[in-house]
Design goal:
Keywords: Aminotransferase, Pyridoxal phosphate, Transferase. InterPro entries: Aminotransferase_I/II_large, AspAT/PAT-like, NHTrfase_class1_PyrdxlP-BS, PyrdxlP-dep_Trfase, PyrdxlP-dep_Trfase_major, PyrdxlP-dep_Trfase_small. Belongs to the class-I pyridoxal-phosphate-dependent aminotransferase family. By secondary structure, the chain is α/β, with parallel strands linked by helices. It folds into 2 domains: 140 residues, Alpha-Beta Complex (Aspartate Aminotransferase, domain 1); 238 residues, Aspartate Aminotransferase, domain 2 (3-Layer(aba) Sandwich), CATH 3.40.640. The protein starts with 5 loop residues before the first helix and ends in a 5-residue tail after the last helix. It binds pyridoxal-5'-phosphate. The site of pyridoxal-5'-phosphate has 13 residues, from helix 5.
């Protein structure tokens, strides 16, 4: 028999991808399925970005590039971080990767030793705990509740820190909840972190531009500048510029960490796609109005879907501040229908409503469903109508 590594044995395949595949299977069989399980904008990549990619091909930008990215893109990233986040970086502090996902993977590979702990607030993006395990680290999951808008408290953070803690993962606005820390809350978490200089902070800001809170978006180092020396900002063009397939993300952080991350990438994938890099320059350095336009559409959908979900029997859902997800507590509905859990509910809705969602268990928060609103309002309205019918125990 073939021997497989212990490392892969403890890792699960991505649950969000599994649900999308199940929905696609039913659709292929001719079922009318509305998918609210997607993790990408429904918009096409803006025209000026596509044009830049075509120009790059025609100009012959089709060869290997520097592992950490072409100088023009690194400069566009430096300018973006200064413009949007008030954070100053040099080229040696930037690494361009195949999506934000690879940037996070590189970071964990470069900084985590066996047994090191990484604090992961739940609900979490599905990949964090498994990426920590792939680095032989130990995810330490911090549970949150709807009462705190699924955000961790400074006390909770302080209590979870041990001698083995190496990193805190922050993702605000969050996938799956759409919730975000206020400036005050970031300051309070920062105070705890200031007492523990050996803890790195990974700030996954990938949903930065899909944002409608009253306060402006802020990365934690903007609020607590003393943390910048041990902060790694993760961001990319996937969500904000509707560029998921292009696979461009980046990390900005201490040069010593970035150098080791670059080494990991150099021995695994080398540079991200040269053509996509040229497109990302156009995205980050070009006209930003496309970002604002998409955000307006996401907000309109959020503002319709949130009260509609909250009004469903046995469901409670509070407004989010950004991203394109709502995370609703369906525990009442699960009980009324006599189902076991959120996994059972997601299957029930797929079967009886033809609506695909992602069960909260995948994000470390049972009893919930994540519903994505990266689709038109009409689709959302049809989906909610169908969910309402399928939640009726008499039906
Ligand atoms: N971080 C979070 C929180 C995400 O939701 C995602 C995508 O789903 C990523 C990172 C990865 O983004 P990318 O497509 O740039 O790899």
């Amino acid at each position: 028999t073939i021997q497989l590594s212990k490392r892969v044995a403890q890792v699960k395949p991505s649950a969000t991808i599994a649900m999308s595949m199940k929905a696609a299977e039913l659709r292929a069989k001719g079922r009318d399925i509305i998918s609210l399980s997607m993790g990408e904008p429904d918009f096409d990549t803006p025209e000026h970005i596509r044009a830049a990619a075509i120009e790059a091909i025609n100009e012959g930008q089709t060869r290997y590039t520097a592992v950490d990215g072409i100088p023009a893109l690194k400069q566009a990233i430096i300018d973006k971080l200064a413009r949007d986040n008030n954070l100053a970086y040099e080229a040696s502090q930037i690494l361009v990767s195949n999506g934000a996902k690879q940037a996070i993977y590189n970071l964990l590979q470069a900084t985590i030793d066996p047994g090191n702990e990484v604090i992961v607030p739940a609900p979490y993006w599905v990949s964090y705990p498994d990426m920590v395990r792939l680095a032989d680290g130990q995810p330490v999951i911090l549970k949150t509740t709807p009462d705190s808008n699924y955000l961790i408290s400074p006390t909770q953070l302080a209590a979870s820190i041990t001698d083995q803690t190496r990193m805190l993962m922050l993702n605000s606005p969050s996938n799956p909840t759409g919730q975000a820390y206020s400036l005050q809350q970031l300051a309070e978490l920062g105070e705890v972190l200031l007492e523990h200089p050996r803890i790195l902070i990974c700030s996954d800001d990938i949903y930065e531009h899909i944002w409608w809170a009253d306060e402006p978006f802020a990365s934690i180092a903007e609020v607590v500048p003393a943390l910048k020396d041990r902060l790694v900002v993760i961001n990319g063009v996937s969500k904000g510029y509707a560029m998921t397939g292009w696979r461009i993300g980046y990390a900005a952080g201490p040069a010593a960490v970035i150098k080791e991350m670059r080494k990991v990438q150099g021995q695994s994938t080398s540079n991200p796609c040269s053509i996509s890099q040229a497109a990302a320059v156009a995205a980050l350095a070009g006209d930003q109005s496309c970002v604002a336009e998409m955000c307006v559409a996401f907000r309109e959908r959020h503002d319709w879907l949130q009260p509609a979900l909250d009004a469903l029997p046995g469901v409670s859902c509070s407004p989010g501040k950004g991203a394109f997800y709502l995370f609703a507590d369906f525990s009442g509905a699960i009980r009324t229908l006599g189902l076991d859990d959120d996994l059972g509910l997601a299957e029930h809705l797929l079967e009886h409503a033809g609506v695909a969602s992602v069960p909260g268990t995948a994000f470390g928060a049972p009893g919930h469903l994540r519903l994505s609103f990266a689709c038109g309002l009409d689709t959302l309205k049809a989906a909610v109508e169908r969910i309402e019918k399928a939640l009726d125990p008499q039906a």
